[in-house]
Design a protein that fits this description.
The chain is of the alpha+beta class and 342 residues long. The protein has 10 helices and 9 strands. Helix content is 41%, strand content 15%.
Length: 342
Protein backbone atom coordinates (compact mmCIF):
# COMPACT_ATOMS: atom_id res chain seq x y z
CA UNK A 1 0.00 0.00 0.00
CA UNK A 2 2.77 2.42 0.96
CA UNK A 3 4.54 2.00 -2.37
CA UNK A 4 1.33 2.49 -4.37
CA UNK A 5 0.30 5.42 -2.24
CA UNK A 6 3.66 7.09 -2.75
CA UNK A 7 3.47 6.77 -6.50
CA UNK A 8 0.02 8.28 -6.44
CA UNK A 9 1.23 11.24 -4.44
CA UNK A 10 4.10 11.83 -6.88
CA UNK A 11 1.69 11.85 -9.79
CA UNK A 12 -0.46 14.37 -7.98
CA UNK A 13 2.62 16.57 -7.49
CA UNK A 14 3.89 16.27 -11.09
CA UNK A 15 0.63 17.00 -12.89
CA UNK A 16 -0.03 20.36 -11.22
CA UNK A 17 3.58 21.33 -11.88
CA UNK A 18 3.27 20.40 -15.58
CA UNK A 19 0.08 22.36 -15.87
CA UNK A 20 1.74 25.37 -14.22
CA UNK A 21 4.68 25.22 -16.64
CA UNK A 22 2.36 25.08 -19.65
CA UNK A 23 0.51 28.13 -18.40
CA UNK A 24 3.75 30.06 -17.85
CA UNK A 25 5.09 29.16 -21.31
CA UNK A 26 1.84 30.20 -22.94
CA UNK A 27 1.81 33.52 -21.13
CA UNK A 28 5.40 34.19 -22.12
CA UNK A 29 4.65 33.42 -25.76
CA UNK A 30 1.63 35.71 -25.69
CA UNK A 31 3.53 38.50 -23.97
CA UNK A 32 6.39 38.38 -26.54
CA UNK A 33 4.05 39.46 -29.31
CA UNK A 34 3.29 42.81 -27.68
CA UNK A 35 6.23 43.70 -25.51
CA UNK A 36 9.57 44.87 -26.85
CA UNK A 37 12.55 43.92 -24.72
CA UNK A 38 15.49 46.29 -24.85
CA UNK A 39 18.72 44.53 -25.79
CA UNK A 40 21.58 44.40 -23.41
CA UNK A 41 24.38 46.95 -23.97
CA UNK A 42 26.62 44.35 -25.56
CA UNK A 43 23.90 43.16 -27.90
CA UNK A 44 23.03 46.75 -28.76
CA UNK A 45 26.63 47.38 -29.85
CA UNK A 46 26.60 44.29 -32.02
CA UNK A 47 23.33 45.27 -33.67
CA UNK A 48 24.67 48.77 -34.31
CA UNK A 49 27.16 47.40 -36.76
CA UNK A 50 24.32 46.12 -38.93
CA UNK A 51 21.48 48.53 -38.32
CA UNK A 52 22.26 52.22 -38.88
CA UNK A 53 19.74 54.99 -38.48
CA UNK A 54 17.85 55.63 -41.72
CA UNK A 55 18.16 59.26 -42.86
CA UNK A 56 15.40 60.27 -45.24
CA UNK A 57 16.58 62.39 -48.20
CA UNK A 58 15.27 65.92 -48.24
CA UNK A 59 13.07 66.68 -51.26
CA UNK A 60 15.10 68.41 -53.99
CA UNK A 61 14.46 72.10 -54.47
CA UNK A 62 12.77 72.86 -57.77
CA UNK A 63 15.21 74.03 -60.47
CA UNK A 64 14.94 77.69 -61.40
CA UNK A 65 13.14 78.32 -64.70
CA UNK A 66 15.41 78.36 -67.77
CA UNK A 67 15.17 81.46 -69.94
CA UNK A 68 16.06 80.87 -73.60
CA UNK A 69 17.39 83.93 -75.40
CA UNK A 70 17.45 83.63 -79.18
CA UNK A 71 20.13 85.99 -80.51
CA UNK A 72 19.54 87.29 -84.05
CA UNK A 73 21.60 85.67 -86.77
CA UNK A 74 24.32 87.69 -88.47
CA UNK A 75 22.09 88.05 -91.52
CA UNK A 76 19.11 89.19 -89.43
CA UNK A 77 21.35 91.74 -87.74
CA UNK A 78 22.59 92.96 -91.11
CA UNK A 79 19.01 93.40 -92.32
CA UNK A 80 18.06 95.29 -89.17
CA UNK A 81 21.11 97.55 -89.43
CA UNK A 82 20.45 98.40 -93.08
CA UNK A 83 16.82 99.19 -92.34
CA UNK A 84 17.95 101.46 -89.52
CA UNK A 85 20.41 103.29 -91.79
CA UNK A 86 17.70 103.80 -94.39
CA UNK A 87 15.13 104.90 -91.82
CA UNK A 88 17.40 107.45 -90.14
CA UNK A 89 19.06 108.80 -93.28
CA UNK A 90 16.62 111.64 -93.79
CA UNK A 91 15.93 110.55 -97.37
CA UNK A 92 14.26 107.74 -99.24
CA UNK A 93 16.69 104.84 -99.56
CA UNK A 94 16.56 101.61 -101.55
CA UNK A 95 19.03 98.74 -101.11
CA UNK A 96 19.41 95.54 -103.11
CA UNK A 97 22.09 92.94 -102.26
CA UNK A 98 22.62 89.72 -104.20
CA UNK A 99 25.42 87.40 -103.14
CA UNK A 100 27.44 85.58 -105.77
CA UNK A 101 29.67 83.53 -103.45
CA UNK A 102 29.36 81.46 -100.32
CA UNK A 103 27.60 78.19 -99.52
CA UNK A 104 24.24 79.96 -99.31
CA UNK A 105 23.77 82.86 -101.71
CA UNK A 106 21.28 85.20 -100.15
CA UNK A 107 19.39 88.20 -101.48
CA UNK A 108 18.46 91.15 -99.30
CA UNK A 109 16.17 93.95 -100.37
CA UNK A 110 15.23 97.08 -98.43
CA UNK A 111 12.75 99.06 -100.55
CA UNK A 112 14.39 97.31 -103.48
CA UNK A 113 11.21 97.18 -105.53
CA UNK A 114 10.41 100.88 -105.26
CA UNK A 115 10.85 103.20 -108.24
CA UNK A 116 13.59 105.82 -108.16
CA UNK A 117 14.85 108.30 -110.71
CA UNK A 118 17.38 106.34 -112.78
CA UNK A 119 19.57 109.35 -113.62
CA UNK A 120 22.69 108.06 -115.39
CA UNK A 121 22.18 104.43 -114.36
CA UNK A 122 20.34 103.96 -117.68
CA UNK A 123 23.87 103.89 -119.09
CA UNK A 124 24.52 100.57 -117.35
CA UNK A 125 22.26 98.42 -119.59
CA UNK A 126 23.37 100.57 -122.55
CA UNK A 127 27.01 99.60 -122.01
CA UNK A 128 26.05 95.98 -121.35
CA UNK A 129 24.32 95.89 -124.73
CA UNK A 130 27.47 97.31 -126.35
CA UNK A 131 29.65 94.72 -124.59
CA UNK A 132 27.46 91.83 -125.67
CA UNK A 133 27.42 92.97 -129.29
CA UNK A 134 31.20 93.37 -129.32
CA UNK A 135 31.70 89.94 -127.74
CA UNK A 136 29.50 88.36 -130.41
CA UNK A 137 31.21 90.19 -133.28
CA UNK A 138 28.01 91.95 -134.25
CA UNK A 139 29.72 95.32 -133.82
CA UNK A 140 33.34 96.32 -133.36
CA UNK A 141 35.28 98.49 -130.96
CA UNK A 142 36.78 100.44 -133.84
CA UNK A 143 33.42 101.31 -135.43
CA UNK A 144 33.07 105.03 -136.18
CA UNK A 145 29.93 106.67 -134.75
CA UNK A 146 29.13 110.29 -135.55
CA UNK A 147 27.54 113.05 -133.52
CA UNK A 148 24.15 114.60 -134.37
CA UNK A 149 22.83 117.84 -132.85
CA UNK A 150 19.95 115.97 -131.23
CA UNK A 151 22.53 114.09 -129.10
CA UNK A 152 23.71 117.21 -127.28
CA UNK A 153 23.45 117.41 -123.49
CA UNK A 154 25.70 119.01 -120.90
CA UNK A 155 28.47 116.72 -119.73
CA UNK A 156 32.18 116.20 -119.32
CA UNK A 157 33.27 116.80 -122.90
CA UNK A 158 32.70 119.83 -125.10
CA UNK A 159 34.23 118.68 -128.40
CA UNK A 160 30.98 117.64 -130.08
CA UNK A 161 30.06 119.48 -133.23
CA UNK A 162 28.49 118.73 -136.56
CA UNK A 163 30.63 116.22 -138.39
CA UNK A 164 32.46 114.98 -135.23
CA UNK A 165 32.93 111.22 -135.20
CA UNK A 166 34.35 108.88 -132.57
CA UNK A 167 35.17 105.20 -132.19
CA UNK A 168 32.78 103.02 -130.25
CA UNK A 169 35.54 102.45 -127.69
CA UNK A 170 35.98 106.17 -127.09
CA UNK A 171 32.28 106.84 -126.71
CA UNK A 172 31.90 103.88 -124.34
CA UNK A 173 34.79 105.09 -122.17
CA UNK A 174 33.25 108.56 -121.98
CA UNK A 175 29.87 107.06 -121.12
CA UNK A 176 31.10 104.66 -118.46
CA UNK A 177 34.05 106.21 -116.69
CA UNK A 178 32.97 109.85 -117.01
CA UNK A 179 29.19 109.38 -117.40
CA UNK A 180 29.19 111.82 -120.29
CA UNK A 181 25.65 112.42 -121.52
CA UNK A 182 26.27 113.28 -125.17
CA UNK A 183 28.42 110.19 -125.69
CA UNK A 184 25.64 108.06 -124.19
CA UNK A 185 23.04 109.66 -126.48
CA UNK A 186 25.13 108.77 -129.54
CA UNK A 187 25.35 105.14 -128.38
CA UNK A 188 21.61 104.97 -127.67
CA UNK A 189 20.83 106.31 -131.15
CA UNK A 190 23.09 103.72 -132.81
CA UNK A 191 21.56 100.97 -130.65
CA UNK A 192 18.14 101.82 -132.08
CA UNK A 193 16.83 104.49 -129.73
CA UNK A 194 15.15 104.41 -126.30
CA UNK A 195 12.73 101.65 -127.31
CA UNK A 196 15.61 99.36 -128.22
CA UNK A 197 17.31 100.19 -124.93
CA UNK A 198 14.19 99.33 -122.94
CA UNK A 199 13.67 96.09 -124.84
CA UNK A 200 17.22 95.06 -124.06
CA UNK A 201 16.84 96.07 -120.40
CA UNK A 202 13.87 93.71 -120.11
CA UNK A 203 15.92 90.80 -121.46
CA UNK A 204 18.48 91.21 -118.67
CA UNK A 205 15.91 91.33 -115.87
CA UNK A 206 15.10 95.05 -115.59
CA UNK A 207 11.37 94.42 -115.78
CA UNK A 208 10.27 97.34 -113.61
CA UNK A 209 12.34 100.04 -115.27
CA UNK A 210 11.26 102.69 -117.79
CA UNK A 211 14.52 104.10 -119.07
CA UNK A 212 15.08 107.41 -120.83
CA UNK A 213 11.45 108.52 -120.50
CA UNK A 214 10.39 108.81 -117.71
CA UNK A 215 13.77 107.27 -116.80
CA UNK A 216 12.94 105.34 -113.65
CA UNK A 217 14.36 102.14 -112.23
CA UNK A 218 14.49 100.09 -109.02
CA UNK A 219 17.44 98.92 -106.91
CA UNK A 220 16.42 95.30 -107.58
CA UNK A 221 16.46 95.91 -111.36
CA UNK A 222 19.93 97.46 -111.23
CA UNK A 223 21.22 94.52 -109.21
CA UNK A 224 19.64 92.02 -111.58
CA UNK A 225 21.44 93.63 -114.53
CA UNK A 226 24.76 93.44 -112.68
CA UNK A 227 24.13 89.81 -111.70
CA UNK A 228 23.35 88.87 -115.30
CA UNK A 229 26.67 90.36 -116.40
CA UNK A 230 28.70 88.88 -113.55
CA UNK A 231 27.36 85.38 -114.20
CA UNK A 232 28.43 85.55 -117.84
CA UNK A 233 24.94 85.67 -119.31
CA UNK A 234 25.61 88.75 -121.45
CA UNK A 235 28.52 87.71 -123.61
CA UNK A 236 30.65 85.91 -121.05
CA UNK A 237 34.30 86.68 -120.35
CA UNK A 238 34.80 88.55 -123.64
CA UNK A 239 32.07 91.05 -122.78
CA UNK A 240 33.35 91.43 -119.23
CA UNK A 241 36.92 92.02 -120.44
CA UNK A 242 35.72 95.00 -122.47
CA UNK A 243 33.10 96.37 -120.07
CA UNK A 244 34.65 96.03 -116.62
CA UNK A 245 37.67 98.32 -117.12
CA UNK A 246 35.30 101.06 -118.35
CA UNK A 247 33.30 100.86 -115.12
CA UNK A 248 36.29 100.61 -112.75
CA UNK A 249 38.00 103.58 -111.05
CA UNK A 250 35.44 106.02 -112.40
CA UNK A 251 35.27 109.72 -111.66
CA UNK A 252 32.72 109.01 -108.91
CA UNK A 253 34.14 106.71 -106.25
CA UNK A 254 32.60 108.30 -103.14
CA UNK A 255 29.69 105.87 -102.85
CA UNK A 256 30.00 102.08 -102.72
CA UNK A 257 33.82 102.02 -103.27
CA UNK A 258 34.35 104.38 -100.32
CA UNK A 259 32.96 101.77 -97.91
CA UNK A 260 35.33 99.00 -99.05
CA UNK A 261 38.93 98.10 -98.17
CA UNK A 262 41.81 98.77 -100.53
CA UNK A 263 42.38 96.10 -103.15
CA UNK A 264 38.67 95.51 -103.72
CA UNK A 265 37.55 95.56 -107.35
CA UNK A 266 34.40 97.64 -107.79
CA UNK A 267 32.73 97.59 -111.21
CA UNK A 268 29.94 100.14 -110.92
CA UNK A 269 27.78 102.79 -112.49
CA UNK A 270 26.56 105.83 -110.63
CA UNK A 271 23.76 108.26 -111.38
CA UNK A 272 23.43 111.81 -110.05
CA UNK A 273 20.54 114.15 -110.73
CA UNK A 274 19.23 116.93 -108.49
CA UNK A 275 18.38 115.18 -105.19
CA UNK A 276 19.04 111.67 -106.53
CA UNK A 277 22.18 109.61 -106.04
CA UNK A 278 22.44 106.02 -107.27
CA UNK A 279 25.22 103.44 -107.29
CA UNK A 280 25.05 99.91 -108.71
CA UNK A 281 28.17 97.76 -108.26
CA UNK A 282 29.71 94.35 -108.74
CA UNK A 283 32.12 93.89 -105.82
CA UNK A 284 34.95 91.35 -105.87
CA UNK A 285 37.73 90.74 -103.33
CA UNK A 286 39.41 87.33 -103.36
CA UNK A 287 36.70 84.72 -103.05
CA UNK A 288 34.07 87.24 -101.97
CA UNK A 289 31.69 88.40 -104.69
CA UNK A 290 28.37 90.19 -104.56
CA UNK A 291 26.25 92.81 -106.27
CA UNK A 292 25.00 95.85 -104.40
CA UNK A 293 22.73 98.64 -105.64
CA UNK A 294 21.78 101.64 -103.53
CA UNK A 295 19.45 104.49 -104.53
CA UNK A 296 18.89 107.64 -102.48
CA UNK A 297 16.32 110.40 -102.99
CA UNK A 298 15.90 113.62 -101.03
CA UNK A 299 19.46 114.34 -99.87
CA UNK A 300 22.21 116.53 -101.23
CA UNK A 301 25.03 114.82 -103.09
CA UNK A 302 27.47 114.71 -100.19
CA UNK A 303 24.98 113.36 -97.67
CA UNK A 304 23.63 110.79 -100.13
CA UNK A 305 27.09 109.47 -100.97
CA UNK A 306 27.90 109.23 -97.27
CA UNK A 307 24.78 107.09 -96.71
CA UNK A 308 25.75 104.84 -99.63
CA UNK A 309 29.31 104.46 -98.30
CA UNK A 310 27.97 103.57 -94.85
CA UNK A 311 25.67 100.91 -96.29
CA UNK A 312 28.55 99.55 -98.36
CA UNK A 313 30.83 99.32 -95.31
CA UNK A 314 28.20 97.48 -93.25
CA UNK A 315 27.60 94.95 -96.00
CA UNK A 316 31.34 94.39 -96.42
CA UNK A 317 31.63 93.75 -92.67
CA UNK A 318 29.03 91.02 -93.00
CA UNK A 319 30.32 89.51 -96.23
CA UNK A 320 33.97 89.40 -95.12
CA UNK A 321 33.01 87.33 -92.07
CA UNK A 322 31.12 84.66 -93.98
CA UNK A 323 32.98 81.34 -94.42
CA UNK A 324 33.55 79.09 -97.42
CA UNK A 325 33.12 81.10 -100.56
CA UNK A 326 32.60 79.43 -103.91
CA UNK A 327 33.23 80.66 -107.43
CA UNK A 328 30.28 82.31 -109.23
CA UNK A 329 28.19 80.11 -111.49
CA UNK A 330 28.40 80.84 -115.22
CA UNK A 331 25.05 80.57 -116.96
CA UNK A 332 23.84 80.74 -120.55
CA UNK A 333 24.12 84.15 -122.27
CA UNK A 334 20.99 86.15 -122.97
CA UNK A 335 19.89 87.12 -126.46
CA UNK A 336 21.88 89.81 -128.25
CA UNK A 337 20.05 92.98 -129.33
CA UNK A 338 20.17 93.76 -133.03
CA UNK A 339 22.39 96.65 -134.08
CA UNK A 340 20.66 99.57 -135.76
CA UNK A 341 23.25 101.17 -137.98
CA UNK A 342 23.00 104.79 -139.09
Amino acid sequence: MRGGHGRALRRLGIYPLAVLLLVLVGNAAYASSSVSVAPTPALGRDLGRFARPVVLAQPAKPAPPVTTVLAPSAFDQLSADLQAIARTSGGRVGISLQELSGPRRTNLSVNGGLNFVAASTYKLPLLMAEAQQIASGQVHRSDILCYAPSDAEDGWFMDYQAGSCFTRDELALRTGRYSDNTAAHILVRYLGGPDALNRYAKTIGMNNSALWVPNTTTPDDLSQAMVSEALGRLGGAAAQAWLYPILTRTTTEQGIPAGLPGGTTVVHKTGTLDATENDAAYVRNGRIAYVLSVTVDGLDVGAARSVIARISARIWQYESNRPDYAAPVILRPASIPPQNRH
